[in-house]
Structure formats: structure tokens, C-alpha cells
Prior knowledge:
Blueprint: H1 2-9, H2 30-35, H3 48-52, E1 61-67, H4 73-83, H5 88-101, E2 112-115, H6 120-126, H7 130-142, E3 145-146, E4 151-153, H8 165-172, E5 176-178, E6 188-196, H9 200-209, E7 216-224
Parallel strand pairs: 1-7, 2-3, 2-6, 6-7
Antiparallel strand pairs: 4-5
Helix pairs in contact: 5-7, 8-9
Amino acid sequence: MINDFISLIFPKVCAACGKSLYKQEVNICAACIYHLPKTNYHLQPNNPIAKIFWGRVKIHSGAALYGFNKGGKVQHLIHQLKYKGYKEIGFTVGKLYGDELKLCADFNTVEIVIPVPLHAKKKKKRGYNQSDTFAQGLAQSLNAKAKLNVLFRAFESESQTKKSRYRRWQNVASIFQLRDTIDLAGKHILMVDDVITTGATLEACAQTLLQIPNIKISIATIAYAAN
């Protein structure tokens, strides 16, 4: 009864479309789960995400759940996750995507899920890393382990939002370092982030992770914002 009363005053709404959620819905309404623009890239070996990294860094496979359009519902979803404090959205989306990826041969052998890290100052200011929650949701569905502290940013980088592809790469080329890599050798690792555009940040993370012997790296993001 208390929860119902609170819902009347502060109704829970869909993070994508803003409409009220039914009791059984969590963070995203059923209509948006069905209608948001899925890429299905995980079913396409030579998809646009995989091609981003050709000739740049060796990855096993790459995919993104949604296509990103400015002003669209996916942008609103990411904005709620990243800037409005709704970190649970990442976990929900991660679980949904993990349920799809575990049915795909390129991803169902993933053992470790590692998010792109925020610098400590930015994480303290925001209160959380949105990619951490996405990683945790994916790990649960994939029956894998989320390792949130393997990578860290040695120093703070500038925002990537308005930079060119080359400037994005310059901005993050050597800022990531490793720690807590025990038992990661030989594992299939899934690197994850919220949005991929040029792939510069994920490339830098992958190059750093490749210091670990005999690992296989795949990449997954919530959304793909094509240039």
C-alpha cells in the first residue's frame, strides 16, 4: 500500500519514452523494449562495430544493442543513465542485452566483463560509473564475472563529445593502466561502454588489456552513434 501511494505521487516512468510504467515493468516499458532501434549486430560477424577496430586493435567480436539518433528515445535513455542518477537503467539494459548475447556463439564464451573506467574525480562527482552497472547486468545474464577495477584512468582526460576521430584517439591513447589482473590470462573478456562513436576509448582500453597473456577481447555497448 505504501509503495502504491508513493507511486501515485511520484510515478515511475520509462527511461526511454517517459510514460508511466506498469507494476511488472522495470525502468523501461514493454513497448520501448520492443520498439527501440536494435542493431542486431551480434548476429553479423562483420558488422559496423567490428569494422571500427579493423587495423587498429585485435578484437574477437563487437556489437551494440541500439542505434543512437540525436533527440531519439535511445539518447534520452542514455541521458537518464549518465546524467540524471538513474544508474539502475544500466543494469536493466545489461540484463536484456546479455539475454540476447548468450544465444550468440561469438559472445556465449565470455567469462569476464570489464567496463570502461571513469577517472576517480569524475566518478566521485557523478556518484557512479554508468558503465559499471551495464557490465554487472551483462555479467549476470552471461553467467560471467564483472571486474570493475581491472582498468583505471591514470589521469583525467577531456570530454570526447566534440572531438574529431584523431583527437579522440590522442585524448585517450595512454591514459589507461592495469591492476588486479590475477586469473585473467587466457580469458574471453567483454569490454563495455555506454556509447561508441569512433571507438577511440575502447581501442585504448583494449590495447592496455592486451598486455594480459592470451586473452580474447570482445566489445559491447548500449548504443552506437555513427559519425
